Amino acid sequence: MSTLNTATATPFTAAHGSATWRLVRAELTLSVRDKVGPLWGVGCPLVVLVILGGVPALREPVATGGGMTIFDLYVPVLILFNLAILALTALPATLAGYRENGVLRRMQTTPVGPARVLTAQLAANFATALVAMALFLAVAGLGFGVDLPQNLAGFAVAWLLAAAALLSVGLLVTALAPGRGPAAAIGTVLFFPMMFFAGLWVPVAYMPPVLQTISHYTPLGAGMRAFEEAYLGQFPSAVPLLTLAAYALGCAVAAVRWFRWQ
Amino acid sequence: MPAVIEVRNLRKRYDDKIAVDDVSLTVQEGEIFGILGPNGAGKTTTVECIAGLRTPDRGEITVCGLDPRRDRAGLTRRLGVQLQAGCLPDRLQVAEALELYSSFYPAPADWRALMDDLGLAAKAKTAYAKLSGGQKQRLSIALALVGDPRVAILDELTTGLDPQARRDTWALIEGVRSRGVTIVLVTHFMEEAERLCDRLALIDAGRVVAVDTPAGLTERARIEQRIRFRPSRPLDDHLLTSLPDVSGVTRRGEFVIVDGNDNALNAVTTVLARNRIVAERLRVEQASLEDAFVELTGRHLDAVGPDAK
Question: What UniProt keywords are attached to this protein's entry (chain A) (predicted)?
Fold first, then answer.
């Protein structure tokens, strides 16, 4: 996007870091100061995890789960839940808010382009999600004896793609929504069906075949499938991974294309 | 002096209303150029087109020889913009904002020095939302200058400020100009335009009414002097009306009001002295930029234009 010629950058700027990195840091600082993102996006799923962990019935093995308990299945669901909250509510609220009150308008007068503004949002939310995911795995493991995913590399790849896919959907929602209110509304409307297909209320394995098929091609359903495979020790199969990658790429390109400063 | 900004036949309409009908102006290097007009005259739209934030429907604009829409990277490095609608995240602190924005530019100004110059050093760790109106404006100026621009556009800089903060801001703007930055100042305050601008464009209903120095504009309007006094003893109007420089005499209570040209004051005081009449509480109302504006547009400056947003 930017045609900045880095060769002409003075030592002054070099010593102060790149604009993208500065933006990421500023966004992280702001989100920690705001407390809303971390509390709602990380705390809420964590509370659900602790509550579900206290229900004995959920600790029984599931027939189709390959020896996993319902609670075991809920750990990846809640990791997705956390990603979805950040991507579909926190991110659009921040970015649409910036657009509404003129923060983006001011940035538009500087050499910083849309790609870097969006990258900063993406990276800051990525970092929050990463901390949350580590926290979930630790609480589930240390508190309730849930094993780590057997295929850790596979889980990492699946998580990265799922995070990229969801955050890109969030960016696209922000790009297309006219304001903060509509962005929040669209985010919420997307959130519930997407969480349904991830198995938040009914595990995907218990859904009728049609719904299972639909689920496999939603971002959260594909993410859930990849997570489950990683938990059971396989490297996730191509279909869910490609589905996630397609969402990530398609939505990110569209979000940059339709990005509006005002 | 070379032209830094050239605007030719700019036109911009929003849906059903014409914001800018036909605006042409040239800003020379190193000057403070004012754009003056009532609310809704098209001032902001004009500068937004100059800054490349809006696409004109018609007309040509060059800034430092660049097309503001096509050469964004080049333009944003040379042009600092302080917008009416610009804002920062509530919890971003002053120093953080300046450091962040300076990182956007390949060769920025020293943001710490800028923070000191604009009297914001004591507020370095204050969140944006906690700043006063004047402090926000100063930060806004600092952000417009942090890229070390050649040209700065300052839009309605002192609107909403108290008189003291307004005067402080004027001193700042003069300081900025002395750094060699060309300034385009959008305002609807006469006093501000008169005090700061080398030249200014009067804009009304999307058109340039006149471009001149503040003094040139008042002269151009050819407004008469108005002399007002209380005679120390009764005075026959005819003494004054017979003077060639006087165009009219009216009475208001015990006061006499005389309208006339530039020489009227001389003529009137001479006649009064000859008749041993003292002009008590003598007051001469000089034509101001405000009068010039009314004369040139037939409209008061604080009146809202037909295209007001």
Answer: Antibiotic resistance, Cell membrane, Membrane, Transmembrane, Transmembrane helix, Transport
Tell me if B104 and A19 make a contact (CB, 8 A cut-off): yes
The answer to whether B193 touches B200, Cβ cutoff 8 Å, is: yes
In the three-class reduction of DSSP (H, G, I as helix; E, B as strand; rest coil), residue A248 is classed as: helix
Q: Is the ipTM of this complex over 0.85?
A: no
Beta bridge partners of B216: none
Q: What is the dihedral of CA B252, B257, B259, B260, to 10 degrees?
A: 160
Instruction: Decide if A103 and B89 are in contact by the 8 Å CB cutoff.
Output: yes
Q: B224-286: same fold as B3-219?
A: no
* Structural domain spans, chain A: 16-257
More confident residue, A68 or B211: B211
Number of A–B residue contacts, CB under 8 Å:
88
Q: What is the pLDDT of residues B191-207, one digit of tens each?
A: 888 889 999 999 988 99
> Chain B residue with minimal CA distance to A28?
B92
Residue of B nearest to A15 (CA): B103
Q: Which residues contact A66 (CB under 8 A, 6 or more apart)?
A: A232
Specify the CATH number of the domain B3-219: 3.40.50.300
In this structure, which topology does domain B224-286 adopt according to CATH?
Alpha-Beta Plaits (3.30.70)
- What span, in angstroms and rounded, lies between the C-alpha atoms of A156 and A137? 12
Q: Which helix (H) or strand (E) holds A52?
A: helix A44-53
